[in-house]
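Listing S7. Sequence submitted for prediction.
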Amino acid sequence: MTMTSRLARALLTIAALALPAQALAQEAGETPVVPMLRASVTVTTDLVRIGDFIDNAGNAAAIAVFRAPDIGTTGTLSAARVVAALRAHQVIGVDTRDIREVTVTRAARTIAVADIEALVARTLARQNGLGDAANLAILFDRIMQPLQLDPSHEGEMRPVYAKYDPRSTRFDVMVEIASTQSATPTRLRFAGTAVEMTEVAVVNRGVERGEVLKASDVSLQRRPRAEAGGDLAPTSRAVGMAMRRSLRAGQALKFADLAKPEIVQRDQSVTLVYDIPGIHLTIMGKATESGAEGDVVSVMNLQSKRIVQGTVSAPGRVTMSAPRATTTALLSSSESAADGRAAE
C-alpha cells in the first residue's frame, strides 16, 4: 500500500470518529437518536451538565458545562448559548424545538420563617419563667427570610443549645440539620428576644366613669404579660359592666375598673315590693341612695314617710324581705289594706 493510500485511510478514520452519534447510527443502518433540548432544567448541585439540558445525551450526559444559580433561585440561558456549549463537546444536531430560552433552577429545601419561630418558641417554652410556646412572641435580631438549604439536608431541625435571659428577654438558640452528603450536620444560630404574651380586654375608645360597656366598646389584644399585669378582666365579664374610672382608648381592663351598673339612682321614684307567701304588697317610694342589682339601698315610703331598706332587684324596683322589715314599717294598716285590695 502506497504512502498516499495509507494517509487517505487514516484521514477517513479520523473523520468517522468525529461524526456525531446519529451519523454513525445511520451508517450502521440504525434509527438515529436525536438530542432534544429541554425548556426548563432543575439541578440539585452547583453544576449544570449536558444531560440536564438535553434528552438522549448519551456518554456526554455527565459533562459539566455551566455553573448552577444560587440555591433556591432560577436563571435563564439563551438556547443559542446552550447549543454552542454543547457543540464545544461534540454534541451536535440538537433539536431545539424552537426554544429560545432555557430556565435553570437550583433546587432547595425551603424552611419558612414561621417554622423557625415555632422551633425557637418550643425550645424556650417553660424555661426561666416563660409560659407555653403558643404564647411566646419571637423577634429575631435581623430581618428573617425563608432559609434555602441544599436538598441533601433532609433531617429535621434539632436544637443543640439554648440560652434565655429573663431580665433582658434575649435568647440564643443553635440548631443542627443532618445532610445525606456530609457526616457533619449543618448548624444554624438564631438570636433575638422572646416575650410571653397574653390576651387582654381593652377599650376601643375613651370611656368615662359610670359608662356601661357595650360589646363594640371592648376587644381582645395580645400584650406582653409583664406589661399587662394581673387582675385582668375577660371580655365576657366586661360587657354590661359600668366603669369605676375613666380609661383611654387601648387601655387594658382590670376587674378593679368594673362595677355593676347602678339601676336605681338616688332620688329616683321606685316601686317597693314586699313579697312573702300569702302576701304581695307594692307601693311607691323614693330611693335615698343609688345601687346596682343586688345592692341593699334605703328607700322612703312616700305615704308613711318611713325609711326602709330593700334589695335592688330590677331597674326602678326594690324588694323587701321579712328579716329586713315588717309590714308595719312598710305601710300603715289602712295603706296596707288598700294596697292589698289593689294588688288583688
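Caption to Listing S7: primary sequence and predicted C-alpha cells for the chain studied. Residues 15-106 form a domain with the eubacterium ventriosum atcc fold fold (CATH 2.60.480). The chain has four domains: 15-106, 113-192, 198-259, 263-343.
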